[in-house]
Design goal:
Radius of gyration: 18 Å
CATH architecture: 3-Layer(aba) Sandwich
CATH topology: Protocatechuate 4,5-dioxygenase, Chain B
Number of helices: 9
CATH superfamily: LigB-like
Number of domains: 1
Oligomer: single chain
Largest sheet: 9 strands, mixed
Structural class: alpha/beta
Length: 295
Amino acid sequence: MEKIDRKPAVAGQFYPANLNMLQMVLTDLFAEATPKQHQNVRAIISPHAGYVFSGKVAASVFNQIDSEKTYKRVFILASSHQENFEGASVYCDGDFLMPYGKDLVDTTFGKKLVDSFPEFFTANRSPHLKEHSIEVQLPFLHHLLKTDYCIIPIILGTSDPDVCKKIARVLKFWFNTDNLFIISSDFSHYAAYSDARKIDGFTKTAILSNHPETLINTLTENIRRQVPNLVTSLCGWTSVLTLLHMTTGNDSMEYRAIDYQNSGDAPLYGEKDRVVGYWGISVSEIQQKKKTKLV
């Protein structure tokens, strides 16, 4: 099969297409970001907006990743903004072209995932071609990691919570110390500044509970609050829900809120009447302390 590398869809829009400018922007974002606070990070939830709006939050949560660790694979889960379809699409045709070169895709693994679980995964590349939510994570990953890595790009097209749970059962096998999971999601959309902060706080707390039903109930309750102009309180909810299904019931996994802003905080473009919210959240494996036996 002919290799088909995915070309950038939002370079020059969400982030600089010029390599030197991109490096400068990333250097500045990581310089102002929250420093590393946690070890043994297994997953992060990172925003996917334009860097002028969400870049600091993204850099803050990427900072929590063990930058010198060698990961076998980096799974990137995002919910589709472009197409609705059943299950999830794995990009298996080639690598991701970026301003700095290529982010290598483990296409062999992707094809095996699709072939082994065709009821949940497809190799249709169409949902990936114009989707920004995976692409915008890649420059942060490339800037941070000091070791070689390959990615598994997965876009969820489903809006069925039960399908998310089934996808999580499959991916949970690889949710271990060998791999890293990046979950791409913004939070509330288009409420006023103060309303967004409140709604985003409720949603963040639900995610920190590490319980899928708590998140679902909170998203439902957010709708019932009838906040003016609120379109969604978690645009990548299917991806976040899938992560929660991989971690719930595991007492060694701890969710931590790292940083928050919304688009109203942007110095140049920060309109307060209609904003998008961004939380950066990390998931760490807590080292269990050995109990001392009393003699």
